Give the backbone structure.
Amino acid sequence: MSIITIQRYMSPCGELIIGSLDGCLCLCDWVGGRHRHSTELRLKRLLNAEYQEGSSNVIEVACRQLDEYFRGERRVFDLPLLFAGSSFQKMVWKELLNIPYGTTISYGEMSRRLGMPKAVRALANANGANAISVVVPCHRVVGSNGSLTGYGGGLDVKRFLLNLENLERNCGTAHEVNS
């Protein structure tokens, strides 16, 4: 039996549980999230692991990088990731990493990028099962009309994250133009 080391992290928009296993980040999930229990069970089952509070090098680096992200100083995370899911889910989560900071795409566009234009619903379900929130930016996927759709941390958190990214990007752009 393996041990997933977990630690709580207080972000400006809610509390996260950060988890690592074998030197990789496997969990960054909203404490009050709607998928919290199913995510916990899936990780325990697929990684043959139990949870234990503590810290690790990966958790410390993740917390530092999250601090930088929330201060507007980091746009890309640089952490070893461990995805626990089906091959389809892993494919979706890896594609999420290709969505640039400060941008959004629709579920339909993402399914077309993956070469599966009819798999929008399955893609949305895989997106919702992402256990490494913020770091793997599932918050950047929106409805086809640009509307905010479901998010594990809630729509207020999704709105906060998108505003943080757009505000920082817009400020950076304005600063570059004025320089």
